[in-house]
Amino acid sequence: MKKISILGSTGSIGTQTLDVAAMHPDSFEIDGLAAGSNTALLLEQVRRFRPRRVSVASKELADDIRPQLPAGVELFSGDEGLVQIAAGGDADYVVTAVMGSVGLRSTLAAIEAGRDIGLANKETLVTAGHLVTELARCKGVNLLPIDSEHSAIFQCLNGERAQDIASITLTASGGSFRDLTREQLRNVTVEDALRHPNWAMGAKITIDSATMVNKGLEVIEAHWLFGLPYEQIGVVLHPESIIHSFVEFRDSSIIAQLGNPDMRVPIQYALTYPQRWHSPAQRLSLAQAGQLTFREMDFARYPALRLAIECGKIGGTATTAFNAANEVAVARFLRRDIPFVRIEEILEEVLERHTAESHPSLEQIEDCDRAARTLAHSL
Ligand code: NDP
Ligand code: MG
């Protein structure tokens, strides 16, 4: 029996993690759930999964739900609540599925408490990859990737020696606007952007897929998870999203991981590693798929991807500023405050004014995150 806590239980990854847990009720017990503001869904999850500890985004929300919680359930709120769910109680495994760098302190707290991490919250690694990976190494904690591309690479690398890896390549679907030219991007709406061709995900990551920022964040995530230099990390367009990513070895062999797009598969693998259990995911028939296609990544079409990789190469707080500016720009686009193409311009403008600090402390990272957010709001 594995005791799990979930940060972001009411989101796309959080609910699918609970789906996986519900399929194997004799193997998983839910210890803690942290949500943002969707209290109706959280209460439903509490009734169904009987966690001992829950948290919501604010004290006001906590006061609202307190009378409706079963006796004995501990209630927390705010950033401190996230930390309580991550590091308190007696879970042995924490799934980090909140959206954004708000997940940083709680992820560090979970690692400090010696808990293995199922890592969906890529912004944490982009914001402070060196702190998270160093602490995990120090504490002997496993960081198990949930992001489908990273789960794919992780599976392809199983049992291989680091020195035999020539390169890894992340596949990209191209997002909602893959068939539009840059000129056509000028008039797209929020509704258009939220219509992802292959994956149903949270709003922020769907917009990140359309700008290709998501792939940029994933390149940085891969750099930290697999300890590879940026020169050995490639990206290729693969509209079908069937090959989730692949590794090339020095003997020129390539190993890829394939499957229909269904996040429950990488989520379950992160929970059951090194075992593989039965999954209800639809089986892939290659004969039915017929053909898999690939295109060279066009960096002129997706300037934010180029910028993300540049920030990764600079390192230090450059990726922190990139991530923070992007979180604000995407939120502004979703509020209809700026047009779609302005997201990329805000990223460029924030990074132009940023002087990167190498090897920043947690405090320096949080200062940089705040400053980049303020600037991205003001532009
Ligand atoms: P969603 O927006 O669907 O969910 C985000 C979750 O975080 C919700 O439970 C939300 O609560 C919670 N949350 C937000 N802010 C706070 C806060 N201040 N305190 C506590 N909880 C908070 O996002 P996704 O599930 O799509 O993505 C989550 C992470 O996983 C992201 O980092 C994303 O990049 C990554 N990821 C997602 C994939 C996907 O398929 N969705 C695939 C690969 C990676 P509430 O809704 O109650 O407000
Ligand atoms: Mg991904």
TrEMBL record:
Cofactor needs: Mg(2+); Mn(2+)
- Known InterPro entries for this protein? DXP_reductoisomerase (IPR003821), DXP_reductoisomerase_C (IPR013644), DXP_reductoisomerase_N (IPR013512), DXPR_C (IPR026877), DXPR_C_sf (IPR036169), NAD(P)-bd_dom_sf (IPR036291)
Q: What is its EC number?
A: 1.1.1.267
**What UniProt keywords apply to this chain's record, in alphabetical order?**
Isomerase, Isoprene biosynthesis, Magnesium, Manganese, Metal-binding, NADP, Oxidoreductase
Where do the annotations place Mn(2+) binding?
A: D147, E149, E218
* SUPFAM superfamilies xref list: 1-deoxy-D-xylulose-5-phosphate reductoisomerase, C-terminal domain, Glyceraldehyde-3-phosphate dehydrogenase-like, C-terminal domain, NAD(P)-binding Rossmann-fold domains
> Top EC class per UniProt?
oxidoreductase
Q: Start and end of every DXP reductoisomerase C-terminal domain?
A: 258-374
Domain called 1-deoxy-D-xylulose 5-phosphate reductoisomerase N-terminal: residue spans: 4-129
Biological processes per GO annotation: isopentenyl diphosphate biosynthetic process, methylerythritol 4-phosphate pathway involved in terpenoid biosynthetic process
Domain 1-deoxy-D-xylulose 5-phosphate reductoisomerase C-terminal span(s) in chain numbering: 143-226
Q: Which residues form a coiled coil?
A: none
Q: What does this protein do?
A: Catalyzes the NADPH-dependent rearrangement and reduction of 1-deoxy-D-xylulose-5-phosphate (DXP) to 2-C-methyl-D-erythritol 4-phosphate (MEP).
Spell out the protein name for this chain.
1-deoxy-D-xylulose 5-phosphate reductoisomerase
The gene name on file is dxr
